[in-house]
Fold 2,3-diketo-L-gulonate-binding periplasmic protein YiaO.
Amino acid sequence: MLKRGIAAALATVMALGLTACGEKPQDTKTGDSKTPATPTGFVEAKVEPDNFDSGVELKPDCYRFIYALGNAPATIDAAKYFKMRLEQESDGALSCDIYTDNVLGSERELLEGCQFGNYDIVLATNATVASFSNDIFCLDIPWLYDNKQQVYEVLDGVLGDTLAAGLEDKGFKLLQFQENSFRTLTTSDRKVEKVSDLKGLKIRIMENELQLAQWKSYGANPTPMAFTELFTALQQHTVDGQDNWCGVNMADKVL
């Protein structure tokens, strides 16, 4: 029997509390020349296939997984790459149908559907996953890391294994952590240059208790809301701004 799965997508800021790009390794001087410091742990390898065609003919009895996710370009490309490699590695015995733009429901609905076996793979932000497994809340604690390198090493280590075990107790199988990008605050008409500028600002946030407490501590008026409701809320001025990651802002023109 196939195990149902969940791939928890980490929007780097959303998941890890960073607000700027990771620090570059400091140069170490050797005589008159500069040699970049050697990074430790995981080093990113960028994969850019010309297209996502696996080149494999699917078998007549090919099992097709249901892969549901949102509309962020990076995560959609990752899903397509997963599909390509799945077909190649299984020699056409396995594939997946990818459903984007939350057409099958909100993140919470997708995760519930995954629990009940309606969907095989769901790519969801950890902020939403945390409502199913409280241990995941630790990823939303702000200012934990200095750079992305530290994040990779931690999630590929004991903490990542512990979080995966907790999700398995809730009926999920963690397939991967995936980075989106850094979290950003955008507003309709107010500049935010210091913490006091947040006072009373109505901000759409994810449905996550820790993020709610965080923004309240800054003096803002956070409003938990599913992403599918955001556009209407901005148009009707139910919220003044939103906390999201920059890739979504650009893709959906909500800057």
User: Anything to note?
Assistant: Residues 92 and 153 are 34 Å apart (CA to CA). The longest helix spans residues 73-89. Residues 183-251 form a domain with the D-Maltodextrin-Binding Protein; domain 2 fold (CATH 3.40.190.10).
